[in-house]
Amino acid sequence: MMKVLLICMASCLLVVNGGDLINRCALAKILHEEDLDGFEGYSLADWLCLAFVESNFNTSKVNENVDGSFDYGIFQINSHYWCNDYLSHSENFCHMDCEDMLGPNLLPSIHCAKKIVSGSGGMRNWVEWRLHCSERPLSYWMTGCHLG
């Protein structure tokens, strides 16, 4: 199990170029520029861990849930509450189309994630973050990233 985890972590440290994947350090730089380091008490490492456990740094990931809703983008933001996908009922608390959270422009995903984190529960709203990131040492997510 440890060997699998190490291989997985090593692959995350590699530069991913092309496709719908974003490099870990490139994402750290964008998140830093959008003032997410320390936002609501969460470090850049928390945000990187969240992006990894939710989408494996895939900016165009879409996942269907058993309730008929969908999760979108790098942070896997749910259509039932946060964005409108025109496929299922949505509260659309972020006031945006879910498709805006797909692809290379991360600003819609970041703005919506900030809204989610600012509310009740913070990052605990993401089950995968609670299971894999919460209350764990995360500084290694920033290894080799120079935010200058």
UniProtKB/TrEMBL annotation:
Residues 1-18 form the signal peptide. It holds the Pfam family Lys. The keyword Hydrolase does not apply. Transmembrane segments: none annotated. PROSITE patterns: GLYCOSYL_HYDROL_F22_1 (PS00128), GLYCOSYL_HYDROL_F22_2 (PS51348). Residues 94-112 form the Glycosyl hydrolases family 22 (GH22) domain. The keyword Nucleotide-binding does not apply. Keywords: Disulfide bond, Signal. This is Lysozyme-like 6. One of its GO terms (biological process) is fusion of sperm to egg plasma membrane involved in single fertilization. GO terms for cellular component: acrosomal vesicle; sperm midpiece; sperm plasma membrane. Coiled coil: none annotated. One of its GO terms (molecular function) is lysozyme activity. Belongs to the glycosyl hydrolase 22 family. It comes from the Eukaryota. It comes from Peromyscus maniculatus bairdii (Prairie deer mouse).
